[in-house]
Design brief:
Elements (H helix, E strand, L loop, with lengths): L9 E9 L5 E6 L9 E7 L9 E5 L2 E9 L10 H14 L7
Parallel strand pairs: 1-5
Antiparallel strand pairs: 1-2, 2-3, 4-5
Bound molecules: zinc ion.
């Protein structure tokens, strides 16, 4: 029987956030597969392709256990302009307080 590979990266679904007032973008792991907390990974700036920084990263809470930054599956439902705006507002409400940076 094969040993269980503890190093197999878990998938961590990310959302892309930009930092208001800067050109820095972050991948936000809303729920870490290991600790359930939120982690941030710098995705680069708006000039670079943030997709290039997806993939395997060590989990900040446990560097021995990498996880794989993955975009969540897109919902099939078409989202109109209002839904997108609402989603953005929800995302903002859900994120950090801008002033705390
Ligand atoms: Zn974690």
């Amino acid at each position: 029987m094969a040993k269980k590979d503890r190093r197999t990266p878990q998938q961590a679904f990310v959302t892309l956030r930009d930092m208001p007032g800067t050109r820095v973008m972050f991948w936000v792991v809303d729920a870490c597969p290991y600790c359930g907390e939120r982690h941030l990974h710098v995705a680069g700036n708006i000039r670079s392709d943030p997709g290039e920084s997806l993939g395997e990263h060590p989990a900040p809470c446990n560097p021995e256990r990498p996880y794989e930054l993955t975009l969540p599956p897109r919902p099939k439902k078409k989202t109109g302009k209002d839904a997108r705006r609402k989603a953005r507002r929800d995302a903002r409400a859900d994120t950090w307080d801008e002033d705390s940076w």
